[in-house]
Design brief:
The complex is a heterodimer. By secondary structure, chain A is α/β, with parallel strands linked by helices. In chain A, 44% of the residues lie in helices and 18% in strands. Chain B is mostly helical. A two-stranded antiparallel ribbon of chain B has the order 1-2. Classes of the chains: A alpha/beta, B mainly alpha. At the A-B interface, helix 2, strand 2, helix 3, helix 8 and helix 9 of A face helix 4, helix 12, helix 17 and helix 22 of B.
Chain lengths: 337, 579
């Protein structure tokens, strides 16, 4: 009976929403599924007349899909996709530049550098090392505190990281190491790290999930996933290396050719509002509007100081060369020679 | 070409027709009609498979801006180094999996059709379980069984599940039912007279096996090997999840397309993947040419005699496969109840509360159900009708050859490639069909094409086993081919038709790789939700949703078995009449 009532209530709500929804926006996103409902609800508190129809998948799939749909785009807005992906779309001429209300309040790192930006940032998604405390103890592994620590032979066979050729998280790490340490030292660091890696995965969250389930002691992954797994009860310790962290901006953009420009602009305006920033802050330690973020559980309080001064243009321009070099050095392919 | 003079005699004995009605009948059974129908069938397949594939694979000879660059991409890919090892890895893993699966499936099919073992209905049910489960399920189970925290880790003697061992185990698990389905169809209708002859000649069971059983199933064996080999070599799901960094060609497509958004390089690898599949196709055609009907109009259905030793041997052959499958499924069921593996093993039902779950929940489940039913109805009709045209009507050789090639092509195409092709083709602004993009219909069409090949092979195998004399007798009785189709062929093939329907239904319920690019905001699918949950680290809810899908498929399987039993009963009288 209780369920029935609930169902009825939900149905009535849905009907009511449908009745007042004047515009429906198709929004492509890579935001975690568990957050989507919250994002739409908060947005609808201010704009009940715009209904969001989500199409969600992992970053790689959404990006591939958007690019494949280039001739006849189906999305109106992209809300929550990696900056690197949006840069690709921008270079393909698929994004509609738009300066949302409150643009000047965004940190310069969190917007496309063009005067009328093609994308505007939401939050930062940063690297972290997930250490399984139980497995670390079983194998007598000291807690690492820096990237350099991970090259210590004591960790041999205990480290898992994403393959940068398959995963954006993997590339974010590699590009950050090269930027922080310089090319020569960066590659020699990875040579050392490679000795300790037990395997490279195709997904960026997988190393942390493997650490959470004890399949490995140490997983190089990203902070958001680690924090969520910790909440679920995984015996994890999140380590944020002192040298600096690679990061990536999660951002919003309007797809060129949409026939719902007004609604799309309303959504983008809202996506950089203070209210939205506070909402992002519930899951992310760093958000696009300076001064908004409050420290959150499992994340370092000084997250802002830890992230490197990421040169996205450099990373994008050298991506192909870096990936080829990485594959030459470490891919199973080149090993077999 | 339609009126090719090389056609078999067929309708030649109905040359003069006094009444207009007879004239109509003659024309309806005329060969030009069947050729036109098959041409139409070929056109539909071209639209569903060839045209989309062309729109993607043509990118392999284009640069990023769409200019023709010849073979430059191939040269670039081959010169990037190490491709040989991925190629060799792919080949040996696929070959070894094929040998294991075909051997086990053949022995299982033999034990199920040539012995008097009890409970074969249940055993058949267990043996098809892998096909009822989303591919993530064995991946979770294999890690829980043989991973670092695995309960059976010591069984690997220090080797790692992440790598070729995991790929082979996972591949064997999911391809086994494909092989079994083809082999069972090939062996179900055995001619008892051959076995009587063998007994009369005092041939040993061993000799009978090699001279009667194996040759009778030859076509099935080759088809099964072809299917398994191609499935394994094009699959990236298993290697991606459990292959570690063991490089195979299929994961290279994933790296190029999903990791780096380089469609043209993904197209290059896809084209390279077509090569071994094409070789297997040629081999298959070669053997098929030599196959003749084993179940003729004069056949007597085979009934195994009492033989304890033979039955015990059959049980021995079935046991490892049954145990392996049950262990994998059992572990997944357990995983779906665990709170947080491996550190909090408390069991609870929480993971089954799909209403609260993100990524679709019950809505996605209902979408999947609709999509699977649509695929089943549309696919079965299309597959069977086309197979009937190829096999039981007079057709120009060239046409059947081309059609056969078209219908087997989807097998050699990784789902990811098919899905992307569908975007390029069906979303194109100049394509009038682009209205179906994002709807449930495109998911149905894509899934029908994706699983066309094995359905087609099953239908063909079943139809091949019927003697061509059925039609000849029909001709002499002035019964049209249509009448033979509805009164003889269809009833006799109903078991195979039911098999095809089930195959399409369950694959539509579990498929991910192609549809992940095509679902819209209101057509999310349960199988995709499983993947999303796993991606988010919610392994137990993912396992729970996977189990729900498996149960649904098992329900479909039960219904299908019931129908099969009923069909067998109602055609038994017919079969006994043939004695």
């Amino acid at each position: 009976m209780k369920h029935l009532k609930k169902a009825l209530a939900v149905a009535t709500c849905a009907l009511a929403m449908n009745a007042s929804a004047e515009t429906e926006l198709t929004v492509y996103t890579a935001v975690e599924a568990e957050d989507l409902r919250k994002y739409a609800e908060r947005f609808n508190e201010d704009h009940p007349d715009i209904k969001i129809n989500w199409v969600r998948d992992s970053t790689g799939v959404v990006t591939a899909r958007l690019l494949a749909e280039k001739e006849n785009p189906r999305a109106d807005v992209v809300w929550g996709l990696a900056g690197t992906s949006l840069l690709l779309l921008k270079n393909e001429g698929m994004l509609q530049p738009y300066a949302p209300e409150g643009l000047n309040q965004l940190s310069p790192k969190f917007r496309d550098r063009d005067e009328t930006p093609s994308w505007v940032g939401m939050d930062a998604w940063m690297a972290a090392i997930c250490v399984n405390t139980i497995e670390a103890e079983n194998n007598d592994l000291p807690m690492p505190t820096s990237w350099q620590d991970l090259t210590n032979p004591v960790y041999q066979g205990h480290v898992v990281m994403p393959n940068p050729n398959s995963s954006g998280t993997g590339f974010l790490d590699v590009s950050a190491w090269l930027q922080m340490m310089g090319e020569d030292e960066g590659w020699s660091f990875m040579d050392g790290l490679h000795q300790n890696i037990s395997r490279y995965t195709h997904s960026g969250s997988k190393p942390c999930k493997m650490a959470a389930s004890g399949e490995t002691a140490i997983g190089v992954s990203f902070a958001f996933r680690g924090a969520r797994l910790k909440e679920q009860g995984a015996p994890l310790e999140l380590v944020f290396p002192e040298e600096g962290l690679g990061w990536e901006v999660e951002a919003t953009a309007i797809v060129k050719g949409t026939d719902k420009r007004d609604a799309a602009q309303t959504l983008v305006d809202w996506s950089v509002s203070r209210k939205a920033m506070e909402m992002y802050n519930e899951g992310y330690a760093i958000v696009g509007m300076p001064g908004v973020a409050q420290p959150i559980e499992y994340f370092p309080a000084n997250a802002d100081d830890l992230i490197i001064d990421n040169d996205f243009a450099w990373a994008a321009g050298n991506r192909e060369a870096i990936l080829a070099e990485w594959a030459r050095r470490y891919d199973g392919k080149s090993e077999a020679k | 070409m339609i009126d090719s003079p090389t056609l078999p005699q067929g309708a030649s004995n109905v040359t003069s027709s006094p009444s207009p009605l007879a004239g109509l009948r003659q024309r309806l059974s005329g060969r030009w009609l069947f050729a036109t129908l098959l041409l139409a069938g070929g056109a539909v397949l071209s639209l569903l498979v060839l045209a989309p594939l062309y729109s993607l694979l043509s990118k392999s000879v284009e640069n990023k801006d769409g200019d023709f660059v010849g073979l430059a991409n191939f040269a670039h890919y081959l010169s990037s180094g190490g491709i040989e090892s991925a190629f060799v890895n792919s080949l040996w893993v696929a070959a070894l999996s094929t040998v294991i699966v075909v051997f086990l499936a053949f022995m299982a099919a033999w034990a199920l059709t040539r012995t008097r073992l009890p409970l074969t209905g249940w055993v058949r049910g267990v043996l098809v379980l892998p096909i009822l489960a989303p591919s993530l399920l064995p991946a979770i189970s294999l890690v829980y069984l043989f991973g670092n925290q695995g309960v059976l880790k010591s069984w690997l003697f220090g080797a790692e599940i992440y790598g070729p061992i995991g790929i082979i185990m996972g591949s064997c698990f999911w391809t086994f039912p494909h092989a079994l389905m083809i082999l069972l169809t090939a062996m179900d209708n055995a001619d008892g007279r051959h076995y009587e002859a063998a007994t009369a000649l005092k041939a040993s069971p061993w000799r009978t096996f090699w001279t009667v059983t194996v040759p009778g199933a030859r076509y099935g064996l080759v088809s099964a090997a072809f299917v398994v080999f191609t499935l394994v070599i094009t699959d990236f799901g298993v290697p991606k999840v459990i292959g570690g960094q063991f490089d195979v060609l299929a994961t290279d497509i994933y790296k190029q397309v999903i990791g780096q958004q380089r469609f043209e390089m993904g197209a290059v690898v896809s084209v390279l993947l077509l090569l071994p599949a094409m070789l297997a196709f040629v081999a298959d055609r070669y053997v098929q040419r030599k196959q003749s009907a084993s179940f003729t109009a004069r056949s007597v259905p085979y009934k195994p005699s009492h033989n304890r030793r033979r039955d015990a041997f059959g049980a021995l052959m079935l046991a490892p496969t049954v145990v392996f499958i049950l262990t994998i499924i059992g572990m997944a069921v357990y995983a779906s109840f665990v709170t947080f593996w491996p550190y909090n093993l408390e069991l609870s039902l929480n993971n089954y509360q799909f209403g609260r779950m993100d990524g679709g929940g019950w809505g996605a489940y209902l979408n999947s159900l609709q999509m699977a039913l649509g695929t089943m109805v549309l696919g079965t009709a299309l597959v069977f009708f086309n197979a009937w045209l190829v096999e039981r009507t007079p057709q120009p050789k060239l046409l059947t050859g081309v059609f056969q090639m078209l219908s087997l092509l989807p097998l050699a195409v990784p789902g990811l490639v098919l899905g992307l092709s569908y975007i390029f083709f069906f979303n194109h602004p100049d394509n009038p069909l682009n209205v179906i993009y994002g709807s449930l219909l495109i998911l149905v069409l894509c899934t029908v094409s994706h699983f066309y090949a094995v359905s087609h092979l099953t239908a063909i195998t079943a139809l091949k086993q019927l003697d061509q004399e059925f039609e000849a007798v029909g001709e002499s009785l002035k019964a049209s081919r249509w009448r033979v189709l509805f009164t003889v062929t269809l009833p006799l093939c109903l078991p195979a038709i039911l098999d095809v329907a089930l195959y399409l239904f369950v694959n539509a319920m579990t498929t991910v790789s192609a549809v992940v690019f095509l679902y819209g905001h209101d057509t999310q699918l349960a199988s995709v939700a499983v993947l999303a949950m796993d991606e988010a680290g919610d392994i137990a809810p993912a396992a729970a949703m996977a189990i729900l899908i498996t149960l649904t498929c098992a329900g479909a399987k039960l219904i299908q078995s019931g129908l099969r039993l009923w069909v067998d009963r109602s055609t038994r009288a017919w079969r006994q009449g043939a004695e």
